[in-house]
Amino acid sequence: MKNAVIGNNKQKANLIVLGAVPSLKVSTRKEFSCWRSSGIVKWKGLMNGGNWLLYLLQQETSSTELRTECAVVLGSLAMGTENNVKSLLDCHIIPALLQGLLSPDLKFIEACLRCLRTIFISPVTPEDLLYTDATVISHLMALLSRSRYTQEYICQIFSHCCKLQHWHSCGFKSLPQPLLCANGPDHQTILFNHGAVQNIAHLLVSTSYKVRMQALKCFSVLAFENPQVSMTLVNVSVDGELLPQIFVKMLQRDKPIEMQLTSAKCLTSMCRAGAIRTDDSCIVLKTLPCLVRMCSKERLLEERVEGAETLAYLIETDVELQRIASITDHLIVMLADYFKYPSSVSAITDIKRLDHDLKHAHELRQAAFKLYASLGANDEDIRKKIIETENMMDRIVNGLSESSIKVRLAAVRCLHSLSRSVQQLRTSFQDHAVWKPLMKVLQNAPNEILVVASSTLCNLLLEFSPSKEPILESGAIELLCSLTQSENLALRVNGIWALMNMAFQAEQKIKSDILRGLSTEQLFQLLSDSDVNVLMKTLGLLRNLLSTRPHIDHIMSTHGKQIMQAVTLILEGEHNIEVKEQTLCILANIADGTTAKELIMTNDDILQKIKYYMSHSNAKLQLAAMFCISNLIWNEEEGSQERQDKLRDMGIVDILHKLSQSSDPNLCDKAKTALQQYLA
């Protein structure tokens, strides 16, 4: 049976369908027969649909040799299709195999581990199945010392059962940040607490290449986004050599590509987790050049994908690494080749080659967009080089409408990174009408794409962007107002951020449309949001809405009562200095209105609050309160004398005299200017 199913997925499926695995009664007859018909082996039902494989595997009365053979056949079945693995999981094969690990027989243990390895590396197997019993991890750690096969299989199981998802995020706005999947940190912590680092470290110097590689892969997953593991790894030594030094040796060009790549991933994770400095020679002179090499045409397509994605992660947040990478081996031009797959059909005579190219084409484009996004995150010259790469803007625009969600997300990230350039917003973005496909993406996309796309839209709505006007005409206000109601925090922040940019120096009609679209109720909801970013951006929006006197007077005539109520609540609340400063600046804008300032002068509660903040210990709040007073008492405006008299009676002039002696030059100058209004 074992020989018949090796390398034949159809045979494996037939065997499962005919009942070789499910838990039924064991047959008393041990003979099985088969015959060949039309090239397909059909298993005759002499087994009575019996549960013989799992049954025999678990029977202590079965000989060890027989149990081992059962584990081998089950492992072979698991190497078939994903449906095979699902069938095996439905038969509760994992608990049976884990039970087999308690056997004293090493060959049987190795067969069970080999089968477990095959099942756990399948994408249909939930990683959590390894962690259902707290004793399993401890026992696996103990088995690491038994043989090179137990070491290889157990490390492989660990690396596949501690998976982390790729990136996501929100953020002129910062680059998307990596996000761990929900189970990632838990799995890392469990393995770390069971001594994974100490038990696996010495395997990096094993005589077996396979053991070294699986140990290396295990560390690359354990260290990802995990400062605790990374800080531990950097101080562990094996045979008198620290692990980072061992990883660097594995980066050398004479080592297998798989080893170079995985070592680079380990060092990258340790660097991003803060265990290794970004200017350390092992990063600048070893890891970064190695990853750039992996992006070259000489490498296999899958290696180029992994190299580019790892490099994108390494340099994502460090300006100097971005600059070094951009001038290493013509990387920016090299990445353009990633978009040339699949090659034209006429140029390919080998169908397998075409199939291979098609399979990796999406992954290549995704990786290139990610790396371009990281490269262009901060430096204007690098962004210019990226955009000047052949057909780059066309490729990004095409990427926004790709069928693959991952490619679309990476394309939006790349666009977001480039949108931080004032020059490109005014030129390339306008020439290619980038706002059109971006608005289309925003109409119907998963949240992970919406977050980055709305971040990009924030930049396209900046006052100097030529795209601002056509975006407004395309109905963006309604879309952005709906984002402010999202349960997703990043989308709420981006929605209000974009509206804030839209309102800056806008016409009165646009401001009125924003207020109408938001509604007073939603505005209050945002001002009472628990997240300080939402609150700050909402205050920023209000500040931009309340600019230029006619606009201030118009908005306060229709929404004055609600706005004054909101201002009062914030000034009375437990908020940080920046929030209160922004709120006082809104009051200063209201005080600059012609009729709107009366809403302050007739509100004694607000006047007392302004007076309180004039004497506050924080100079920023004092200065913001002083702006309010200056706008209220400016003597060139109608009614200034009455306002000055009222404020004098409140003791404001006495405070101004004190502030005119302040050691802070800004406060001192502002106080003297205000006092001159009383003397004029």
Structure description:
This protein has 41 helices and 4 strands. The protein has 680 residues and is mainly alpha-helical. Mean pLDDT is 86; it is low at 23-51 and 165-185.
Strand-pairing-aware structural class:
mainly alpha
Distance between the termini: 106 Å
Largest sheet: 2 strands, antiparallel
Instruction: Report the count of strand segments.
Output: 4
Strand proportion, as a percent range, falls in under 5%
- Whole-number radius of gyration? 33 Å
Tell me the strand order in the biggest sheet: 1-2
Question: What portion of residues is helical?
Answer: 55-70%
- Which whole number gives the mean pLDDT? 86
How many H/I helices? Answer: 41
- In the predicted model, the low-confidence regions spanning at least 5 consecutive residues are 23-51, 165-185
Globally, the shape reads elongated
List keywords for this structure.
two-stranded antiparallel sheet; mainly alpha
Q: What's the topology here?
A:
Elements: H1 2-5, H2 9-17, E1 34-37, E2 40-43, H3 52-58, H4 64-78, H5 82-90, H6 93-100, H7 106-120, H8 134-143, H9 148-160, H10 184-193, H11 196-201, H12 209-222, H13 227-233, E3 237-238, E4 241-242, H14 243-249, H15 257-272, H16 281-293, H17 301-315, H18 319-326, H19 331-336, H20 351-375, H21 380-388, H22 392-399, H23 405-418, H24 422-426, H25 428-431, H26 435-443, H27 447-460, H28 468-473, H29 476-483, H30 489-503, H31 508-518, H32 520-527, H33 532-545, H34 549-572, H35 577-591, H36 598-601, H37 604-614, H38 619-633, H39 640-649, H40 652-659, H41 665-679
Antiparallel strand pairs: 1-2, 3-4
Helix pairs in contact: 3-4, 4-7, 6-7, 7-9, 9-12, 12-15, 15-16, 15-17, 16-17, 17-20, 20-23, 23-27, 26-27, 27-30, 29-30, 29-31, 30-33, 33-35, 34-35, 35-38, 37-38, 38-41, 40-41
